[in-house]
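Figure 2 data, in text form.
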Amino acid sequence: MAITSARPAVPVRRRAPRNVAWSRFLAWLGTHAIAVAFSIAFLAPIVFILLTAVMTDQQALTPDLWPRVWRWDNYIAVFRAAPLLTYFGNSLLYAVLSTVLMLLSSLPVAYALSRLRWRGRDLLFYSVIVAMLLPPQVIAIPIYVLWAHLHLTGTLWPLILPNLFGDAFSIFLMRQFLITIPQSYSDSARVDGASELQILLRVILPMGKPGVAAAALFSFLNAWNDYFGPLLYTGENQSNWTLSVALASFHSVHQVQWNLTMAATVLVMLPVIVLFFLAQKQFIEGIKFSGVKG
């Protein structure tokens, strides 16, 4: 006689009655009302841009919010109306070189201000804070005259080369993160005969990746979104325009074609959004200054 094993009964999850589910939803909505309101206020302009970007020319000028005809070819028309690939390359060149030069110059300064003890360290740190608070427009005229004498106006080099001398905000951000790393790691490396450069590259840098990544992301976004600098130095040389300057010019030329303007805006925003989502973990950890987790 065959013996069959009884299978345990699988519990069936019963759906809550409609009135109970509705009450739970209202309770959740009441608890998170402020967060929901801020989310709607933040997402509404983005949704409006995305919907307008796929409208026709005529509908984009009407109060309609939902496209009657989805014109995905507006994104192709943008590239026909302006050399966006050239402007994209200029923005990428400006952002990448500025970020790389900033890291090469600012990271050693942040290390010296956070890990080494030497006379005048606090005074230099206060100078960095003052430089961070100084608006760039204050020194725009004398700096422009300097680059004009060097015959570099009309190019992006006046915006890239200053990063060789460090960035005050990046120095401050990385210093605040590196200072949270226990000093015992550096002392142990010195006992083993490591130089300060070896300590920086082999000990501190791997442990301080979140802070360095946050500073790099800030630098990249600042260069990518920069409008004042490229307009000041490349305004008369259209071949060296960045996307921010090109987008403003595109709007003035196609001011009655809001669908193309919104499509161009989406294309300008897309790389920044993708970059943030790819690096959001390092960015958040760097901002929180979490330091070393044992």
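Caption note: Residues 290-294 have pLDDT under 50 and may be disordered.
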